[in-house]
Amino acid sequence: MTSAIPQTWNPNQYARNAGFVPALGLPVLDLLAPQPGERILDLGCGDGALTEKLASLGCQVVGVDSSPAQVAAAQARGLDARVVDAHHLPFEAEFDAVFSNAALHWMRQPEAVLAGVWRALEPGGRFVGEMGGAGNIALVLEALQTVLARRGVDIQQASPWYFPDEAEYRHKLEAAGFVVTSIERFPRPTPLPGDLGDWLETFASSFLGLIPDDERNQVIAELRELLRPNLLNDEGVWVMDYVRLRFAATKPWSDADERAYAVMLADIALAAAV
User: Fold this and answer.
1) Which of 24, 101, 203, 254 is most buried as measured by Cβ atoms within 10 A of its Cβ?
2) What 8-state DSSP symbol labels residue 254?
3) What does residue 129 show for φ and ψ, rounded to 5 degrees?
4) Number of structural domains, the chain?
5) What is the Rg, in whole angstroms, of the alpha carbon atoms belonging to the chain?
6) First-last CA distance in the chain
7) At what angle do helices 213-231 and 196-203 cross, to 10 degrees?
8) Has residue 174 got a pLDDT over 90?
9) Which are the contacts of 196, defined by CB distance < 8 A and separation ≥ 6?
10) What is the signed CA dihedral for 35, 31, 84, 56, rounded to 10 degrees?
11) Above 80 in pLDDT, residue 28?
12) Cβ distance 138 to 110 under 8 Å?
């Protein structure tokens, strides 16, 4: 059996090869509709590019990521960023919204993540995100299976990714207590800024790390040849076969929450009348 190894992140490499990730996350920010003064948790903040955008809009943002290197890069932007495992979020009713872009598909225990997001939100809070959906990088996964199987690697065991369809993720959201206000899955072919090998080195280290160093270039060359007919366009640009899952959900008020809120409003009104 092939043992999975953790994905590793290099902030400089990420900025060079994956600048399209935060750029393509801007529509998710629009769906979030952040308001000045709101307290927002950026779940899987990476190097903080979108966390910084939220802060510039007047939000009080906390970014969390499991990569110490990425968190350090976010902190270098002057952001409140913390090394946190998303499967064990430590927050209790602290946020008006939780935002996540291109991170949830790296979290292989979605039930634990959703339970933590639920706890982190105040009643009425929003959870908005985008992640890889079913069918994401299907051609790449097929090529990885072919090339790595020759070397005795089972990519099903090595894969760090979780790509659900909309029905599956809706069910998980609702089972966690959320009310889903929108969810959609759509293809988004994504041009890369450089070579396919750069993408593999940045995003597929869980697989490449299982290959001896002296074979890595050969593996990348074989992947390049297999994927060239489908992913390299006539202009010589590699275009990844991305499929994204975008959603918005809310944590509803319970009866107890509504009673407590009514009492608070009554106390405020009474104090104002005195």
Assistant:
1) 101
2) P
3) -160, 170
4) 1
5) 21
6) 72
7) 120
8) yes
9) 220, 223, 224, 227, 231, 232, 238
10) -40
11) yes
12) no
Q: Which amino acid is at 234?
A: D
**The two structure tokens encoding residue 272:** 């104002």
Burial of 54 (0-12, 13-18, 19+ CB in 10 A): buried
For residue 218, tell me if it sits in a domain: no
The reply to whether 73 falls in a domain is yes
Longest distance between any two alpha carbons in the chain, whole Å:
80
Using alpha carbons only, give the angle 250, 183, 14 rounded to the nearest 5 degrees.
Answer: 95
Given a contact cutoff of 8 angstroms between Cβ atoms, the answer to whether 263 and 257 are in contact is: no
Question: Which residues lie below 8 Å from residue 32, measured CB to CB, with a gap of 6+?
Answer: 40, 97, 99, 126, 128, 248
pLDDT in tens, 246-266: 999 999 987 555 555 444 545
33 φ, ψ (degrees, to nearest 5): 50, 60
Reported pTM:
0.87
CATH code (residue 186): 3.40.50.150
Range of the domain at 62: 11-134+160-194+236-273
**180 belongs to a structural domain:** yes
Task: For 38-75, write each residue's pLDDT tens digit.
Answer: 999 999 999 999 999 999 999 999 999 999 999 999 99
Place of tokens 């074979």: 215
φ, ψ for residue 270 (rounded to 5)? -65, -40
